[in-house]
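request received
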Amino acid sequence: MLVKDYMTRHPLLADPDMPVVDAQRFMVEANVRRLPVVGDGKRLLGLVTRQSLLVDPGRLGSLNMWEIAGYLARLTVKDVMIKAKDVIVIGPEATIEEAARLMVEKKVGCLPVLEDGAVVGIITETDLLAQLTSMMDLRSPGVRATVRMPTDQVGGLARLVNAIAARGWGINALGGSVYPKDPAWWDAVVKIEGVTKEELLAVLQQVPGETVVDIREV
Amino acid sequence: MIADHRPRVPILAVRDLAIVYATRQGDVPAVRGVSFDIQRGETLGIVGESGCGKSTVAFGIVNFLGANGRIVSGEILFQGQNLVGKSEGDLRKIRGDRIAMVYQDPMQALNPSMRLGDQMAEVLIVHRGMDRKAAEAKCIQMLERVYMPDAANVMKRYPHQISGGQQQRVVIAMALLNDPALLIMDEPTTALDVTVEAAVLDLIADLQRDFDTAIMYISHNLGVIARVADRVAVMYAGEMVERAAVADIFLRPSHPYTQGLMRCVPRLGQDKTSSYLYPIPGRVPSPQALPPGCIFEPRCAFARRECGQRRPELREVAAGHWASCLFAEEIAEQGWKPPAPAEKAPSPGASAFPPVGARRAADRPILKVEHMKTFYRVPSRRLFGGREYVRAVDDVSIEVRPGETLGIVGESGCGKSTLVKTIIGLETPTAGTVEFMGIDIAQPVSRRSLDILKNLQMVFQNPDSTLNPSFSVGAQIGRALRRFRKLPGREVRAEVIRLLDLMKLGERYYDRLPRQLSGGEKQRVGIARAIAGRPEVVLCDEPVSALDVSVQAAVLNLLLEIQQQMGTTMVFIAHDLSVVRFFCDTIAVMYLGQIVEIGPAEAIYMPPYHPYTEALLSAVPIPDPRVEQARIRLSGTVPSALNPPAGCRFHTRCPRKLGAICETQTPPWQVAATGQRIFCHIPLAELSRMASVITLKEAPHAG
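response:
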């Protein structure tokens, strides 16, 4: 699960000399929220977001109506973009959790993906959320169960998987994390196709030391 | 798959594009009203005959139209930005960074005087400002990505030091260095051998998956299109006449032109006793003299009165399936029926040919080649003495019986052309005998008797270079008549006209010069000249490979008719296995100067196969997306005929090599129950257990 497999390749790009008005229309038409700005050789110069396109009212306060029109018409992308040195970027070989960490820590919604200085793609929070849905296999119907087990106990997950495998069922999705409200517990989520809720519950309840905290058909 | 949340802005959207070329006769509207989209990671195949505007569209996108071409209307939206009207500087930047092109001839894209590494690295140094070391490392990485063996070493070579298939790989690698969003490929595999072509097509598919590149793939070859494209657009006379997903185009063609193209291509499953090609009558109209109604109306079998009056729009006839025909639904529904049997009777039908086996037993061979060797002497690289030879044909024996057609197939450089050139006398055999009608003819053509010359004629691959440009058609055919049939002068003209009629050309071609003819017409004149003396045997060296599919179909039909009417024996060389299957009774597969498998046509296409035949069959592009082919790819290139490998010559590339025996011992000839002989060490029983290379899978969906 590396960035290169989940990013959008060949993203829409903007030219530094593109008028802001055009960039705004371009983003609305294409329904995108960010545009990397590139120079020759697709080298990253900056990033335009919908926020950066909002004109600061303070700057316009002292201008009359005609001056405002002129000011807006002359305004280009390079005047409003976030400069490259302030843009948080990532490489195509990084892991997606690394991308997620960067987005969380820096509070940004997207990361241009750079290879040898050139923009090869862009990865956004939506890409990561889409990946979460496919990790949880949201697309096909099945039974989803959350099983809680003690964090300090080794082999809990293996016992869970073995119990399911013993019935000959395949696991469509499997994930897990520390229970957010108490780090002493660990929650595993499994999704299985072609079984009923009752069948699965019966099997999971046999696993020693683990409790089923949630089971539902999705 | 989590692709559907991504922006649906197509990489390329062309809207109502019209391109004209200014000429002295006024503007020529070469492309009119063409619209299409290509999404990220999608391949759009553009197919059509030559001169229908495919390449003009491609050149229009990058604005390489030349001094006299210009876009008169329409939009070309590349990633949402209109390229029409952009300044040359802006365009250059976009072309360099985000659009790449690969053309038919790799040698034209490579600088012959620069090492490959230098020209590749230049792309990165100039465009990306990378330093030389990093650029070279990246180039090697990319060459490895296109499966180039020994990439670091290739960087140091010049273009002429690598093979054509490898050159094309270098060009593709170079095109991908900048990670383009759009890759335009204009007939990128047309100049390559089938086995190399198959490998390059596989490569394109792999790269597309990894780089998510949108590909616009132009080809005249329906088989190649069926293999690479996700969606297909069919162009005719400068307009787009049909556009749909690949399966819809091939299984449910809705425009009569598309249907016509499909009928022109011999299928691998067909042989000449069971099928007939139906060429599209007439020819593509000139863009200056378009018919008033539907542009295809004059050639259309379905045309009705309305068709001549108004021009149909490209409209959606089924979900995602666009066609510009007033009666598209009807046509797709009923399909096309061949003309009534009464009409078809004079053409070769099922009953026209006596069963192959019966004929074979009865006759003695008319042409018999035994243990023939043709070597070309080359200067030795050693200091003293010694001669080296290119063993172009090395110990080949064939027999052709009267009225039979022998097909010879193999990759380029396998010696098939040398073989027929030796038979015709353009080369002198180094050893062995060539017997024609019982007479030994192993001598140059200048010393052969008139009778032999008359009875052994040849049709060449390139009609342009075989007709004398300064003599009229009538004079050239007439000369053969006067010389071989000793016709008195006054009868010659009538006979030439009779021949022209037979070629479906007619009297009006009598006084024309070769430059006034199209490629297909020239080839027909070449055939008329070859058969004028009523020869017993005609040798055809790739007679249709330079022609468009519809013309190819007409010429193939013509050859079949001639053979049927005159009982001519033919030796037919082709690299296209489906054409050979359609045309020949017996097929010989050649590899590096030797025949590796020979037998009845129907037997060659079924197991047991020689491993080389198996690889060839798995490589041939089939114009039917339902067909599944085993994926057998040969590694490496054909070894040099200067030093052919010992033992079995195919062992260096053979995927089924047994071991040391293949490297040291000449394989035995094994005769299969189905009649073919196979030159291989692998026991026949094992060869018979091979799976058939080509299988038809169930239709993916019903329209």
